[in-house]
Amino acid sequence: MKITIGNQYDAELILVSKDLASDAYGDIVDQLKGKNLFKGEEGEVYSYVNLSDDKTLVFLGLGEEEKVDEEILRLAAFKGAKELSKLKVKKASVSLKKHAKLCYKKSTKAFAEGLYHAEYRFDKYLSKKQEFHLEEVSFGLLEGKEEKVLPGLKEMEHLMDGVFLTRNLINEPAITLTPVELAKRAKEALEPLGVEVEILDRAACEALNMKAFLAVAKGSTNEPRGIIMRYKGGQDEAPLGLVGKGVTFDTGGYSIKPGPSMYTMNGDMGGSGAVIGAMKAIALNKLEKNVTAVVLATDNVISGDAYVPGDVVGSMLGKTIEIHSTDAEGRLTLADAVYYAITHENVVEVVDVATLTGACVVALGAFNTGAFTNNEELLDKIKTAAKEAGEPLWQLPLSKEYKNLIKGDRGDLKNTGGRWGGASTAAAFIEEFVEGKPWVHLDIAGTSDIESARGYLPKGATGMPVKTLYYYVKGENKGGC
Ligand code: BES
Ligand code: MN
Ligand code: ZN
Fold first, then answer.
1. Which residues take part in binding Mn(2+) 1 (predicted)?
2. What is the rounded CA–CA span in Å between residue 268 and residue 247?
3. In this model, does residue 478 exceed pLDDT 80?
4. Looking at residue 8, what is its pLDDT?
């Protein structure tokens, strides 16, 4: 689906605030309101089809004008696009005005985003595909605003390209998306955009002493991969660091997961999916920043070679780790990944993204990403970015009590901190490897892959928090206007 500028089609989306007289089709809106068919409430959709002249009007309620925000516009656009597609409309127009709370650029971007969300499907393995009919939506803009709005629309198109890449990687089953395949896809997506992609094989990881990561990878016949992605859009400054958990399937290892909780573990590379998608969006939009992303990809499976509980393993940093659960594998891979990013890629700060703990899902459900930091200033930047993105996150604690829980007995550290506060002890473990660098850890176990569709997010991979990472790297705090 493409977005164009103009206002030329017979099918139209009409945005209606509940408490504002509608300029377009005002008399129809009044009649609908009079008959209680459509009131302009937030989320309401009413379609009006005239078969004789091909006129299709889809009214979209926004609720009270004063309260219209980006999220309301995203959802209205999403519903409008779904409705048009259901009516088999191929081309439609929409007149976009400025809303009270938002600048014009932000309103139009949010509306475009919602339209793109409606188009997403992961149907490559379905013999019968459900069709999406809408091919073009043409935006009627306010006089003289084109120049301001067009770059924003292009930016959103690119950003959603990144989000869709992330979703596709996460939705891909593990039988296809092995570590080797993940590395190949990162290369294919990013190299043409000028991102340098270096792939590390098992021997290269051994040479780097990535002992914690390799302990997890030990049990698998699928070869592990390190994926290092370097985007240079800035000057000579040291890069920002992104790290993503890349466990392509998590059985739990010998601390095996029960069947139902194993089923979705192809999504355990959600962090790496997000980081790769973000790199795509960053490169497509040519952000003037340097960013290096690091993924250490492996699956976590059982075999005669697999690591077992009670093992004591090393790490690239040199700290030794007692394995209390082979299912706490993510933090082992991240320990070496963040340490590598800091010591070998010279990043100034690190944001790691990981489907790390069930405890985070218990705490926050599927609605908020859990955020942890050793540097409130960096987290503030991430919070600002998350707001702009419409990707909610919530800070969870990381104080010394949690750090005490992961102190080891036979080794320096243990890889689990017991039953309680599991999201925080996992974060505390990663912090042991960040060498005091500004660091934020995002636990996306609840938000990366969801059980049922919600708003404009599909069931399965959501693409969170690609937009947050993008706006963080972009680093513009003027509110995007
Ligand atoms: N990949 C899981 C976490 C997870 C759970 C992601 C649910 C998505 C949905 C992680 O590797 C894991 O198994 N964590 C354990 C840690 C525990 C053994 C300390 C957990 O959360 O149970
Ligand atoms: Mn696990
Ligand atoms: Zn895992």
1. 250, 327, 329
2. 5
3. no
4. 85
CA distance 363 to 57: 43
For residue 325, report the distance from its CA to the centre of ligand 2, in Å. Answer: 8
Q: CB count, 10 Å around CB of 318?
A: 10
Q: What is the mean pLDDT of residues 219-224?
A: 98
- Assess contact for 347 and 371: CB atoms under 8 A: no
What is the structure's pLDDT at 476? 72
**Catalytic residue status for 289:** no
Token pair listed for 167: 């979703």
pLDDT tens for each residue of 366-420: 999 999 999 999 999 999 999 999 999 999 999 999 999 999 999 999 999 999 9
312: Cα within 13 Å, side-chain hemisphere: 9
Q: Where along the chain do its domains lie?
A: 2-140, 160-474
Alpha carbon distances (Å) from 453 to 10, 316, 459: 31, 40, 4
Top-confidence residue, 55 or 239: 239
Kindly tell me if the per-residue pLDDT of 175 is higher than 70.
yes
Q: Return the pLDDT at 52.
A: 87
CATH number of 2-140: 3.40.220.10
pLDDT value for 477 = 59
Q: Which atom of ligand 1 is nearest to the CA of 329?
A: 11
Across 419-450, b (16+ Cβ under 10 Å) vs e yields eebbbbbbbbbbbbbbeebbbbbbbbbbbbbb
Q: Which atom of ligand 1 approaches the CA of 252 most closely? A: 13
Which segments of 66-111 are extended strands (E)?
91-95
The secondary structure of the chain in percent helix, strand, coil, rounded to multiples of 5, reads: 40, 20, 40
SS3 107: helix
**Domain 160-474: homologous superfamily in CATH:** Zn peptidases (3.40.630.10)
Q: Give 476 or 61, the one with higher predicted confidence.
A: 61
What phi, psi does 352 have (nearest 5°)? -105, 145
**Residue 121 a catalytic site member:** no
Strand partners, 140: 95
Ligand 1 environment, Cβ below 6 A = 250, 268, 325, 327-330, 355-359, 361, 416, 422, 445
Say how many Å lie between the CA of residue 328 and the centre of ligand 2.
5
Average pLDDT of span 25-43:
95
Beta-carbon contacts of residue 413 (< 8 Å; ≥ 6 apart): 319, 320, 321, 322, 406, 407, 429, 432
Distance separating alpha carbons of residues 80 and 87, to the nearest angstrom = 11
Residue 354 and residue 330 in contact, taking contact as beta carbons nearer than 8 Å: yes
Closest-approaching ligand to the CA atom of 358? 1
- Rounded mean pLDDT of 435-447? 99
